[in-house]
Amino acid sequence: MSIAPLGQRLAPLVLSIVPVVSFAQGNAPEVDSSVDKTAILAALEADYGRYESIARTLWANPELGYLEVESAALLQDTLAEEGFTIEAGVAGMPTAFTASYGSGGPVIGILGEYDALPGMSQAAEPYEEPLEDGAPGQACGHHLFGTASMAAAIAAKNWLRESGASGTIRFYGTPAEEGGSGKVYMVRAGLFNDVDAVISWHSGDANTANPGTNLATISGKFRFTGVSAHAAAAPQRGRSALDGVEAMNDMVNMLREHTTESTRIHYVITDGGNAPNIVPKSAEVYYVVRHEDVDEVRSVWSRVVRAAEGAAMGTETDMAYEIIGGTYPRLPNETLAGALHNNLSRVGGVKYSAEDEAFARQIRETLGENLPDIASAAVVQPMEFTRGKASADTGDVSWSVPMAAMRAATWVPGTPAHSWQAVAAGGTPIGYKGMMVAAKTLALSAVDLFTQPALLEQARAEFDTRTGPDFRYEALLGDREPALDYRK
């Protein structure tokens, strides 16, 4: 793939973000003043109980990536009842789907996720209490993500129907965001080729709509095979696959000293043998490499592979690896981010009840020091350029079509993602109120995109400038089929 290093591509992008504050203060194209946004907001608020019930069901039945059978079915059934046309099992993924309503252009996409994280079971309590040891939990708020995005799509559908306007609203049910790269396969299958713009959101501990980027990734599993033997009676006959894994890990840990500061390398041993008195015949380690530069991710990944090859040679074991996922960094779109910010500012943040505040104060006691004020949940943060350190498969979408995303305060301020505190808040009114902030913001923004051609034109022009004339998308995970068993 002919593609300039991302650091070079982002340099002019940072300069273009400098006037973003003035943009957020009202320099975006004017939207159609005839749209009754008050009615859209009121209708969503009236349906709060319905969407809370759906989100609570997803929270209570967390399903891992590519195994979200019941979660996907619930969202599909709800959208079908609302008149959407469902296409299930898209891009080779049984739990992926699209739901479309309307006809003609523009086509506006809204992304929804619903997969949970392994081992993150937690009650909706302000103290650590797993509902079931080792079970999954919604530690990244995807139950709220999928529900709010669906609610926004339904609200946009209702507006299209009542206004008689031309256009198509399309909800994307996107599985396995947590390491499975579900959206990458949807991009690769061309499911965004006819879309004019995509809007999305994510759970968080603050209300923001910032243009920005994050880190690209490649992930994979390294499987070592050795020879079993009695570890005490005949150790000379054995060749330990676990030794291969540990030797690889040692070399990769030494490699860290010789990478750029922004490189991130993570691993977990997923198979280390069965008993200490048996030389392990098989062992497996799961790696993730991150960097903001696509080419740097490829380079570091190749060095990790060489470490695995050397470890196998030194331990006289065999090694094979499988790339599981790969995602691009998010491409910012200031135009769409400005539209989201304007609507988020209109909707406002999350207003706590006395019970919410009491819960939040108890949670804060578990989060350490130097935390944002609880009152910040009710505040919409100023718009600014951000460089995130996490990763998501929304990045690949953003390189295929103009896209922007926001965050809503579904967690107590100061809460990190992938924590039991995030799971806990996500099962309370704090999470559901933040979810509705996102639903309202996305719905209003979708209507703006339907009614203001200049907004779409400006977003597309910015997208074309940022990608450049020579960019050709090529998935970092190659041509492999979806890793449907990566959580089994």
Automatic annotation (TrEMBL):
InterPro entries: Amidohydrolase, Aminobenzoyl-glu_utiliz_pB, Bact_exopeptidase_dim_dom, Peptidase_M20, Peptidase_M20/M20A_hydrolases, Peptidase_M20_dimer. One of its GO terms (cellular component) is cytoplasm. The keyword S-adenosyl-L-methionine does not apply. The keyword Hydrolase applies. GO terms for biological process: folic acid catabolic process. SUPFAM superfamilies: Bacterial exopeptidase dimerisation domain, Zn-dependent exopeptidases. Transmembrane segments: none annotated. Pfam families: M20_dimer, Peptidase_M20. Signal peptide: none annotated. Residues 218-309 form the Peptidase M20 dimerisation domain. GO terms for molecular function: dipeptidase activity; para-aminobenzoyl-glutamate hydrolase activity. Keywords: Hydrolase. Gene3D superfamilies: 3.30.70.360, Zn peptidases. NCBIfam families: amidohydrolases. This is Aminobenzoyl-glutamate utilization protein B.
